[in-house]
Amino acid sequence: MEDYILEVRNIYKSFTGAKPVLEGVNFNLKKGEIHALLGENGAGKSTLIKIISGVLQPDHGDILLKGKKVYFGNPMDAQKHGIAAVFQELALFPELSVAENIFIGHYKYRTLFRSIDWKDLYKEANSFLNSLGIEIDPKALVKDLSIAERQIVEIARVLSINPEILIMDEPTSSLTLEETQRLFNIVRSLKEKGTSIIFISHRLEEVFAIADRVTVLRDGQYIGTKNVAETSVDELIQMMVGRKLEDMYPKVETKKGELLLKVDGLTRNGEFYDVSFELFEGEVLGIAGLVGSGRTEVAQTIFGIRSKDKGKIYIRGEEVNIKNPKDAISLGIVYVPEDRHQHGLLLPMDIVCNTTLPILESLANRGIIDRKEEEILTKKYFELLDIRASGIRQKVMSLSGGNQQKVVLAKWLATKPKILILDEPTRGIDVGAKVAIYQLINKLAQEGYGIILISSEMPEIIGMSDRIIIMHEGRIVGTISRREATQEKILSMALGRKVYTKS
């Protein structure tokens, strides 16, 4: 039998008497290999890696390290055995610096009074970041960093303890192509040094770029393990969802209706300049560009999160003055943010509270909320979006990423908008949930909604958009139709190398 550094045998796990999240799952990891773990949201991936890293304990089953049974009562137990994890939910301290976050728990103290040598700490952090090819100020507070930068700091924090087994849960979800490539170089370097890596990603192209083997889970059960060189995207998708997905991007052609939104010369100094475009009923307008191109900033300005310095916004031909999100919502504009945890959801609250949050005033009579009406409305969107949960009273924090995203959409659809701005709507969700989101986009477009789709995934932006705006350094550098769009053309424009225009 082949020797494995880690073996998981016949693991079961359930919560509060519900159907098991994991049912007899098996997994093994060789020394110095990159082993991808795939499955739809709710397949049990996160639960499995939390068991391996000591966050959760199995109901029964065994974990073996180098052939010997082990038990982890907490993450520190796992860490002492050389196992560390980078989870999708970042575990950083926003008020502390980058250096403090990287070395937290293993600071080097001055001998006499156990005080921190700050000069040495920042110097060591800077040296460590440079060794990873990361350019972030070690003195910067984490709260002031972008999502992508926070993700990089989290990865650096885990690598600073030099683990023998590294678990990476969606490590590239917030990274640019360049940052992802840099991370892959780090991962390959770790592999060469003998580090074993469990790699979770919803981007199948990443699995084929980085992994040696891949294991698929579905509905809490082990489906199979393949050598990456001997499988295909189609086979892995079929293993994950139990059926073939003939078309990942089920775009439905819709009839373009009346002009809904016109943006004319919109400018926010230092972020974007002279942005102009139109959005029609039944249209999906894609906005592409690299991180920092101004895509999100434009969306947030239209929604009233940010103020404009110049320019005009028109709704159905009438100029409007949007000072805050409340103004935008009253005009039928909603914004699904890139970071659903930070800006889209109240995680400790249930599905009902999250769904009705923007419309509580309409559900209240003399300040008292009609709870029956609140539940009826929530059930409507719960069923419409096929939210997979035990019921409408389930806490949002316990839902899978795809179902959390559906709750964000339910919240905004409950306001009965006409313009939806979707900022990275499928970030960190599985292939099946992505298709469900795409089908919803089609349905809403057919019903006459105008949709702005911001995405870093080229196939998604090409597959689902009717027209695509490309931004570079805060400016629109071109607009192309879906028929004209190719990944090469969009990337070339996003990099500012060449401008393509369509009359």
TrEMBL record:
Organism for this UniProt entry: Dictyoglomus turgidum (strain DSM 6724 / Z-1310)
Subcellular location: Cell inner membrane
Catalytic activity: ATP + H2O + (2R,4S)-2-methyl-2,3,3,4-tetrahydroxytetrahydrofuran-[AI-2-binding protein]Side 1 = ADP + phosphate + (2R,4S)-2-methyl-2,3,3,4-tetrahydroxytetrahydrofuranSide 2 + [AI-2-binding protein]Side 1
Subunit details: The complex is composed of two ATP-binding proteins (LsrA), two transmembrane proteins (LsrC and LsrD) and a solute-binding protein (LsrB).
Protein name: Autoinducer 2 import ATP-binding protein LsrA
Database matches in SMART domains: AAA
EC numbers on record: 7.6.2.13
Similarity comment: Belongs to the ABC transporter superfamily. AI-2 autoinducer porter (TC 3.A.1.2.8) family.
Biological processes per GO annotation: monosaccharide transmembrane transport
Main localization category: membrane
Domain ABC transporter span(s) in chain numbering: 6-244, 243-498
The keyword Methyltransferase belongs to this UniProt entry's keyword annotation: no
Biological function: Part of the ABC transporter complex LsrABCD involved in autoinducer 2 (AI-2) import. Responsible for energy coupling to the transport system.
Entry membrane topology: Peripheral membrane protein
Record's GO cellular component terms: plasma membrane
Keyword Transport set for record: yes
Source superkingdom: Bacteria
GO molecular function list: ATP binding; ATP hydrolysis activity; transmembrane transporter activity
Keywords per UniProt: ATP-binding, Cell membrane, Membrane, Nucleotide-binding, Repeat, Sugar transport, Translocase, Transport
Organism placement in taxonomy: Bacteria, Pseudomonadati, Dictyoglomota, Dictyoglomia, Dictyoglomales
